[in-house]
Amino acid sequence: MVPEDGARAAAVAAAAEEERMRPMDTEAMETPAAGEEKPALVEADAFRRQVEDIASKADVLEKKVNEVVRFYDGKKHGSGGRKAGGSGRYAANGGSHCKGMSELMRQFGGIIRTVTNHDWAEPFLKPVDVVGLQLDDYYKIITKPMDFSTIRNKMEGKDGTKYNNVREIYSDVRLIFANAMKYNDEHHDVHIMAKLLLERFEEKWLHLLPKVENEERKIKEEPNDVPSTNTSPEAAIAKLAKDTDDELNEINKQLEDLRKMVVQRCRKMTTDEKRKLGAGLCHLTPDDLSKALEMVAQDNPSFQISGEEVDLDMDAQTETTLWRLKFFVREALERQAKAAPDKTDENAKRKREICNALAKTNSKRIKKQPQ
Predict the structure, then answer these.
(1) How far is CA 282 from the centre of its chain?
(2) CA distances from 117 to 112, 122, 197 (A)
C-alpha cells in the first residue's frame, strides 16, 4: 500500500506541476463583453493560484510519503525502521509553530468577516435550503456543500473537528463560491454575486499568502529529532500514512474539480476548430487515440468504442468534451513532434551502418576476385 501511495503522490505532484507550468489558455475562455474588466484574465489568475496551491500541497505530501516508505523499508530489511526521533515530529506536531499558525487563523478570520459583511453575502452564510427552495437536483450536482456557518463552527471546533491550517479554510471558502457558480447559470444573480465575492476574497488572500508561505517554510525546516513522549514510531507512522492517503484523495478531487471548472469556462468551439480537431485525432498514435476516445466515453456513456473504425460526430459532443480533446490532442502532437527528430536520427544512423556494412562486403569481394 505504501509504495502505491508514493506513486500517487508523485503523480499528483507531476499533474499539478504540469498544470502550473502550462500557460493558461485564455484564447479558449469566453470573450468579455464591451466595458467589462477582462474576466478571462481574472479567472485565469485565480485558476493559476489554485494550481500553485495544489502543487505546494503535493510537494508536502510527497515528503510525507517518502518518510513512510523509508520507515517500512527499514523494517523490511530488519533495521526496525527509523528511530523514534524520526517520527517524533508527527507525534509532537504543533510545538514551536502553533503560535504562528494560530495568528494566521486569527487574521484569516478577519478576511472571512470582511467577506460575510458584504451586502451580497446573505445566500452563502447558511446551508442552502434545498427543501424550501425545491432544489431537487442540488445534491446530484453539488457533491460537497459548504457555507460560512459550517466553516465558522469548524474553526471553533464546535462539530468535533478543526482545521489544521489556513489553506484548509481557504479551500472551503473557495468551495462555497465554486458550488454557487456551478449550480447557478452565469446570468443568475447568485452566480454573479458569488463571482464578485470570490474575486474580493482572492484579493484579500493574496495579501495574507506571503505570511502563510513563510510559516509553512518554518514548519518544513523544523528539526526531525524531537523525541516522542507518548506515541510509538509504528503508531505515529501508521497515522501519518492514513492522514496522507486522505489528503491525497482530497488533492486528486481538487485537481479534477479544477480541470472541470477550467473546461466549463471555455467558449463555444467553431466549426473550423472542430474540423482541425478531427484532423488532429487522425494523426495520433494508437495509444493516444485510445485515450482520446476514452475521454469521449467518460462524458458520453452511450458512446461505444468497438471495431477498428470509430465514427465520431464532433457536433454531437459537449463543449466540455471538445475542449478536453483539443488540449489533449495538442499536447500529444507536440510530444510526437519532439520525438520525431530522435527517430529520424536513429533511422539515419541505421542507414549509415547498413551502407558501411555493404561497402565492407563489396571491398572483400573485390579482393577475393582473381587478378
Answers:
(1) 29
(2) 8, 9, 11
